[in-house]
Write a structure and sequence with these properties.
Length: about 210
């Protein structure tokens, strides 16, 4: 059995990315983000994509559109691929605002507490559980070349789990999810082969070669 290739793409840039704002689902790409989405077409031109899955956030769907159109695919938006949900108390606020700092600190300090929620936000253990469902979704995706557009926290966390095991320290996991670096429209490639002792493998991470000059 050939290994399945999963291409995790972070959505393109938005104005809220530049302004360090916690984003809502309906935020669209900036002009630069649209150029980044167009650049992905060339990055995947020689790869015979079989399927496309995106977060249901507008910025993710817009990022996928040029590439899926070039491959004549119908993308499947899935809320499972949303960013770590910070809750209504933080949506629309600056990352360095007091509510954001307080929420992030509590998220870290109470990372092992499944009962903790900052407003209606997602806690770290819930997010880690969701990642397990994401990996199952990707393993069952049709075909051998799968294009996925999601968010920084999801990609950071998947890379951390695959590198350190499925049950890492909740606090270390929280730091990886919130502070890990992944460029807009970058590509992280995973392979999945259930015949291997370790079925998942990270082949490349945060590849931005297609974005040079943008």
């Amino acid at each position: 059995m050939a290994a399945k290739h999963i291409y995790l793409v972070r959505h393109g840039e938005t104005a809220d990315n530049r302004r360090w704002i916690h984003q809502l689902l309906d935020v669209s790409l900036s002009a630069k983000g649209k150029r980044q989405a167009d650049a992905l077409v060339g990055a995947f031109a020689a790869i015979p994509l079989d399927a496309a899955i995106t977060s249901d956030a507008v910025r993710a769907v817009e990022t996928a559109q040029p590439t899926v159109s070039a491959h004549k695919l119908a993308p499947v938006p899935n809320p499972l691929l949303r960013e770590l949900h910070r809750g209504v108390l933080l949506e629309g606020t600056h990352h360095l605002s007091w509510p954001s700092i307080k929420g992030s600190l509590l998220l870290f300090l109470r990372a092992s507490d499944r009962s903790f929620h900052f407003g209606n936000g997602e806690n770290i253990l819930e997010f880690r559980d969701r990642l397990a469902r994401i990996l199952d979704l990707l393993a069952r995706a049709p075909g051998e070349q799968v294009f996925v557009v999601t968010h920084r926290g999801v990609i950071n966390s998947l890379r951390y789990v695959l590198a350190h095991g499925s049950t890492p320290s909740p606090r270390r996991f929280a730091l990886a999810a919130v502070l890990g670096h992944t460029e807009n429209a970058s590509i992280t490639e995973l392979t999945y082969d259930p015949s291997r002792t370790a079925p998942w493998r990270i082949e490349r991470r945060d590849d931005t070669r297609h974005l040079r000059g943008l």
